[in-house]
Amino acid sequence: MMSSITGTLVGWVPPTRARYDTILKLWQTIMPSFASIQWLTKWNGMGKTSQPSMFNLPGRWAWFFMEIPGFLAVLYCMRTLPAQLGLVALPWQNKLLGGLYVLHYLYRAVAFPFLQPSINDMHILNASSALLFQITNGVCLGSWLGGYGPVTQAQWAGHVSATQFVGGVVIFGLGLAGNYFHDEHLRDIRRRARAKQAKTADGEKKAKRTYEIPQAGLFQYLFYPHYLCEWVEWFGFWMACGWGCAPARAFLVNEIFSMLPRAVNGKAWYRDSFGEEKTKGKKAVLPGIL
Ligand SMILES: NC(=O)c1ccc[n+]([C@@H]2O[C@H](COP(=O)([O-])OP(=O)(O)OC[C@H]3O[C@@H](n4cnc5c(N)ncnc54)[C@H](OP(=O)(O)O)[C@@H]3O)[C@@H](O)[C@H]2O)c1
Where would I find the 3-oxo-5-alpha-steroid 4-dehydrogenase C-terminal domain in this sequence (predicted)? Predict the structure, then answer.
């Protein structure tokens, strides 16, 4: 069994150079079109718009299992590809960037599902498309960091300036902190609801589905500042990888294509749930624009 799995992975994870080029090309073209289908429907089988279904998975475990393969793929590619390419070691820049990716996903995949006081059930379609996103993204970025991008200090020097690299890492850090801060505000709403309703009959159940209009930080202006901060984070990552890094650019573009329709539909959900008066003046995700 194990050897047949390994046999299937050979040449795909990590991919050969030709396969890497093909996967990356498909990733850059198919994913934005696929994600754009969301503009045609208000259906989203997770979070606020999750509906009872026999195809639902428990939210926490869905987040855990769909997000974890991304950073495992990055680690696996960075561990195995250098030897296949005859590289003795990877430059520290590759390791630092791989580390930043893993750091984000230790939060998103491992900590986030269990820090949330509650997460609504998730439809298997949402979970499986996120899983596919994670694996493809992890393979593309992990392969670039593991040997198909710069692999010597001289190549890094010709690829991105030190100022740009440091600036990108700082922007990544600010985006991660902002993403965490706004996620935490949403957690706080649920924690307060839970404390308030703890003493009432079926209070726990009610607290699970409590939604308020969040107000802290950029929530004053936006309904989805945690999404915006995540985009800032991956913009910083792309900047540090160098503007020519196609997998980092594709990651940011594909995140925006996936999350923008969710934020716009989410804004409509807030308006329908809380009324025009209480929700007017706030944008979905881009300050002053959308
Ligand atoms: N969704 C994506 O496509 C996607 C992609 C990449 C990264 N991310 C990142 O993953 C994180 C979570 O994304 P998400 O789409 O699940 O965000 P979300 O819809 O805002 O939900 C986040 C969590 O907060 C709760 N929540 C949401 N709005 C609330 C409110 N008004 N009052 C109280 N609790 C509220 C949700 O509970 P319920 O589950 O009960 O609704 C859920 O546990 C974000 O930081 C985002 O940047 C998301």
Answer: 121-290
pLDDT digits (tens, 9 = 90+) for 151-179: 999 999 999 999 999 999 999 999 999 99
Answer whether residue 216 is part of any domain: yes
Residue 131 domain flag:
yes
Q: Quote the domain boundaries for residue 57.
A: 12-279
Look at residue 198 and tell me if it is in a domain.
yes
> In the Cβ-directed half-sphere of 97, how many Cα atoms lie within 13 Å?
33
Which residues does a 6 A CB cutoff place in the pocket of ligand 1?
47-48, 59, 116, 118-120, 179, 183, 186, 189-190, 211-212, 214, 226-227, 230, 255, 258-259, 262
pTM confidence score: 0.94
3-state secondary structure 263-281: HHHHHHHHHHHHCHHHHCC
223 DSSP 8-state letter: S
Among 211, 228, 274, residue to substitute to test ligand 1 (most atoms within 8 Å of Cβ): 211
2 belongs to a structural domain: no
Residue-wise pLDDT tens digits, 192-231:
988 887 777 666 666 678 899 999 999 999 999 999 999 9
